[in-house]
Amino acid sequence: MLDVRFEINGRRVDPKRIGNALEQVVYEKIVADIRRKVGAVRDPETGRPPKITVKGRSLNNLSIEVQGSEEVINTVKRRLA
């Protein structure tokens, strides 16, 4: 299964436990969109999925970090572009 994590201000955030309902919906939408676009991506040699971390200082300032083989990272970047 595709691992998508959120880190806000260096702390891991669980989208299902965010107090603000609007933020929770936005975070869950981001996870669903990432899974839809790259959920089937696997390393051709190992079969492992990418590890994705969404980081930022706030909801308005997020970036995506992808871990995996070079081929997996390039595929994820193309699909999320």
Provide the number of structural domains. 1
- What is the structural class? alpha+beta
Count of individual beta strands: 4
Strand fraction equals 25-35%
Principal-axis shape equals elongated
Give the neighbour order of strands across the main sheet. Answer: 2-1-3-4
Low-confidence stretches: none
The averaged pLDDT comes out at 87
Helix percentage range: 25-40%
How does the SSE layout of this entry go?
Layout: E1 3-8, E2 11-13, H1 21-38, E3 51-58, E4 61-67, H2 70-80
Parallel strand pairs: 1-3
Antiparallel strand pairs: 1-2, 3-4
List descriptors.
alpha+beta; four-stranded mixed β-sheet; 4 strands
Describe this structure in words.
The radius of gyration is 13 Å and the shape is elongated. It has one domain (3-80). It is 36% helix and 30% strand. It is of the alpha+beta class and 81 residues long. The model has no long low-confidence stretch (mean pLDDT 87). The protein contains two helices and four strands; from the N terminus they run ββαββα.
In short:
With 81 residues, this protein is of the alpha+beta class. Helix content is 36%, strand content 30%.
